[in-house]
Amino acid sequence: MPAKKSEKPAKKPKNRPVKDSRRQKPAWQQKIARERIAILFKEAEKQAKAGNLDLSNRYVQLARKIGMRYQVKIAKPLKRKFCKYCYSYLYPGLTCSQRVKDKSIIIKCFSCKKIIRYPFGKTGPKREKQAK
Ligand SMILES: [Zn+2]
Predict the structure, then answer these.
(1) Distance 125 CA to ligand 1 centre (A)
(2) How far is the CA of 94 from the centre of ligand 1 (A)?
(3) The pLDDT of residue 1 is above 70
(4) φ, ψ for residue 108 (rounded to 5)?
(5) Cα of 126 to ligand 1 centre, how many Å?
(6) Percent of the chain having pLDDT more than 90?
(7) 89 CA from centroid of ligand 1 (Å)
(8) How many angstroms is it from 96 CA to the middle of ligand 1?
(9) Residues with Cβ within 8 Å of residue 55, at least 6 apart in sequence
């Protein structure tokens, strides 16, 4: 009689480790990422001044990618240097126009024609400190 193969092999519990790439990166890596983003924005400004807008847009793209990979937020002053809709580098007078109206900076992107507003001044509606 042939041996019956009805017995199922015991299932091994799959303890696959969570992919490391999805976890938060260590602080030292995030620090380097922040530095790299700052350098890329500096380079982007240089290239925009020289008229190489394609290159400066590319630097913004790279900076955003680094930010996403290392879960690093792009600093506020740098965030205002690119369009939040089409991510093109914003250089006042060259790729965007800047106006001040009603206590906010109004930036118009020339490549996607969208308008971005930023509250102007330290006493924004949300940050207003209550006087004693
Ligand atoms: Zn735009």
Answers:
(1) 26
(2) 13
(3) no
(4) -110, 120
(5) 26
(6) 68
(7) 8
(8) 9
(9) 44, 47
For the chain, give every domain's residue range: 24-119
Query: With 50 as the cut, is the pLDDT of residue 69 above it?
Result: yes
DSSP for 4-38, please give it: P--PPPPPPP--PPPPGGGSPPPHHHHHHHHHHHH
Distance 86 CA to ligand 1 centre (A): 4
Q: What is the mean pLDDT of residues 44-72?
A: 95
Mean pLDDT of all residues belonging to the chain: 86
pLDDT band at 132 (very low <50, low <70, confident <90, very high): very low
Over 60: is that where the pLDDT of 36 sits? Answer: yes
The domain 24-119 having CATH identifier 1.10.1200.10: the answer here is no
Contact 41, 63 (CB under 8 A): yes
d(CA 83, CA 89): 6
Q: At a CB cut-off of 8 Å and minimum separation 6, what does 35 contact?
A: none
